[in-house]
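User: I'm putting together notes for a lab meeting next week and I want to include a structural view of one of the chains we've been expressing. I don't have a solved structure, so I'd like a prediction I can at least talk through. The sequence is below, exactly as it appears in our construct file.
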Amino acid sequence: MTQESEVGSQKSEIRSQRLEARSKKKSCILHLASCILLFTVFYSCASDASRKDDADIHYKIGVVHLNEGNIPEAMKELTTAVEKYHKEASFHNALGLAYFAKGMHEDAVKHMKEATSINPKFSDAHTNLAAVYLEKKEWDLAVAEAKLALSDIFYTTPEFAYFNMGRAFYEKADYAKAEESYKKAIESNPKYIVAYNNMGLTYMKMNRDKEAADMFRLAIRNAPNYVDAHYRLGLVLINLKDKKGAFNEFQEVIKLAPDSETARSAKSYIDLLK
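Assistant: Thanks for the context. Below is the predicted structure for the 274-residue chain, given as structure tokens.
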């Protein structure tokens, strides 16, 4: 019995050793696989970061060209940025702006939509998209994008979105909502001069000439060389029977932009006022 028991104990020990060896082998295989996986992830992340860094260089160069009005070079650099790293919303937004400047509105919409798809809270891209829709005369879509831009309470330049919304409502002949939008634009940034001018245009449509004149004067006070505001103020002053004031405003238009179509129109009004 003792001998049989001893033989059984040896077999059990051998089985135990074999199981331990298998366990160690399996553990080594799992460890190796884990190391390979970690290396792959690390290499992938490093490669991804490298591509983004490379793309960012092209993006920055492209933005410089865009700001300088060199649209072909801007499109070239920004296209390269997007091709090298397509997951960055700002790259698509900038490329969309380049297409917009080129008058290629469908391509602009495509990339700006891609920007908002990557980052739904990218208010600048929503605002830019609204501007494109304004050029395409798609007023309701412009309003919708402006509202999306304003849904982010941390948006630092809401005046642009309010302004685009105001333009859309103006074109829709909804002057009350246009007025409300321009007021909010001015509240957001009291130095946003173009909003005063457009508010004046809105008041003209509403036959509120005195208020329109006040808005144009505010625009001129902040930007004395604002040709369109001088011209519009001249038109409003004619309605208000202030011929002398209108004459002076039209003279200022001719002084500021003598070779423009606006100046030629101002000369016609001056001839009528004489």
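A couple of points you could mention at the meeting. The chain has a mean pLDDT of 88. The chain has 13 helices and no strands.

User: Perfect, that's what I needed.
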